Amino acid sequence: MKASTIRFVDRWLGVPACAVLTLWRRLFDRRPATGPVKRILFLKLVEQGATVLAYPSLRTAVERVGAENVFFMVLEENRPILDMLEIVPPENVISVPTGGLFTTVAGMIRGLARVRRERIDSVLDFELFARSSAVLGYLTGASRRVGYHAYNGDGPWRGDLMTHRLVYSPQVHSLRAMLVLTEALWHDPAGLPALDIDMASLDESIKRFEPSTEEVEEVRQVMRRLTGGRDPRPLVLLNANASDLIPLRKWEGDRYVELARRLLADYPDLFIAFTGAPSEAPPIDALVRQVNDPRCFSMAGKTTMRQLLVLDSLADVLVTNDSGPAHFAALTDVEIVTLFGPETPRLWGVLGPRSHVISLGLPCTPCVSAYNNRLSSCTNNLCMQGITVDRVHETVRKILEKR
User: Fold this and answer.
1) Do residues 342 and 309 touch, judged by C-beta distance below 8 A?
2) How far apart are CA 37 and CA 274, in angstroms?
3) Which backbone phi and psi does 237 adopt, to 5 degrees?
4) For residue 382, what pLDDT is reported?
5) Quick one: 28 exposed, middle or buried, by C-beta within 10 A (0-12, 13-18, 19+)?
6) H or E segment and range at residue 175
7) Taking burial as the number of CB atoms within 10 A of a residue's CB, which of 7, 23, 158, 291 is the most buried?
């Protein structure tokens, strides 16, 4: 389903749905949010990169109630990275199909029926201010529902459907914000949104991806076929894509082409691989043809999600727009250069010493946030256009020299 369709439905159907359910809750729903936490459902329907950031929260839930009592609802197309994290049992992942509006709605109804059969007592809504997730959370029948509340206009209105209502903070990194939401589940809702949590005490570590010898060799064979039998090392990966959710994040393809040409000229032994999903293969192949060098090849559409992580683990540097692949790569030891524009690395940047962020920090940024449902009126992304090839090239060179 297209991002524009998701946003349209969330606004024009979500607002009245939240209003009706809020009225119902205030008039008839007297369920107390008490008793022990036994079974937890995480709601994170979109954005696979954010799912990586949810890993510490998932680990916390598993440690407290057991993996068999942790569930996750996600759109089917965004499930692969969740399976890669190997923390939620596959049978506890509730996938919602995305073949179209009616298919998705029908899938959500089936998912809700499954949740009710499982007797879920707690729901964690990780979708910021989406109305659809607030509605889903309430319709699960769970007695505890943790999520963000608009209060005095602190975000888009989505009714009063949470029992544990928190305030969204634009100063807290998304990984930590998800951990705070998770910790709030074990707090008295009467005391919220105030939370006395020592942020420094939270375990923010994420899973480390360890490919098998067979997996490494399989990916190497694919690359050898594309490079005339040569083993492409050292290797720089270029992810010249950005999801249609926020197209303003894109650094133009011709700049990736120029970057690739410069790096290949600098290092006679270097190889460049462009990455991307199967649907992105044709435009990526066109960029490779523009580079016009036998040491530059396309891996777009040639890997599974797991093989993409194997590829990351074999590479020295990844250059990418602010998108999911940056967070996927954080599971490996590759150095990650992320180009930020309409969003802020303070909230969405890869954490850790291997993260290298390039951002202009213009006065109009970030123009995309939870407060505007990640919609911007901007039609001229100067924040990305102003990131020069010279700057990215210099950053990558410094990393390669160190390695």
Assistant:
1) no
2) 46
3) -100, 140
4) 95
5) exposed
6) helix 174-184
7) 158
C-alpha span between 281 and 212 (Å, rounded):
27
**Cβ–Cβ < 8 Å for 336, 352:** no
The pLDDT of residue 7: 74
Cis check: omega of the bond before 234, within 30 degrees of 0: yes
Find the distance separating the first CA and the last CA of the chain, reported in whole Å.
41
DSSP characters over 314-364? H-SEEEEESSHHHHHHTTSS-EEEEEESSS-HHHHSPPSTTEEEEE---TT
Whole-number Cα distances in Å, 292 to 150, 212, 267, 295: 52, 33, 16, 9
- Give burial (CB, 10 Å; 0-12/13-18/19+) of 215: middle
Contacts of 133-136 with CB under 8 Å at 24 or more apart are 133/43, 133/45, 134/14, 134/18, 134/158, 134/159, 134/161, 134/162, 135/14, 135/17, 135/18, 135/21, 135/161, 136/43, 136/73, 136/108, 136/111, 136/112
DSSP bridge pairs for 219: none
Cα separation, 51 vs 44, in Å, equals 7
**What pairing do the DSSP bridges indicate for beta strands 70-75 and 164-166?**
unpaired
pLDDT in the model for residue 50: 93
Asked if 61 and 92 touch (Cβ cutoff 8 Å), the reply is no
Is the peptide bond preceding residue 366 cis, with omega within 30 degrees of 0? yes
Which regions in the chain score pLDDT beneath 50?
none
- Residue range 204-255, pLDDT digits in tens: 999 999 999 999 999 999 999 999 999 999 999 999 985 565 788 899 999 9
In 17-77, which ranges are E strands? 40-43, 70-75
pLDDT on residue 372? 85
Question: Distance between CA 288 and CA 260 in Å, rounded?
Answer: 9
pLDDT tens column, 362-388:
999 999 888 888 888 898 999 999 999
Beta-bridged to residue 94, according to DSSP, are 73
Strands of the sheet with 40-43, listed across from one edge: 93-96, 70-75, 40-43, 122-125, 144-148, 164-166
The per-residue pLDDT for 243 is 57
pTM score over 0.90: yes
Q: What is the pLDDT of residue 123?
A: 98
- β 235-239/317-321 pair status: parallel
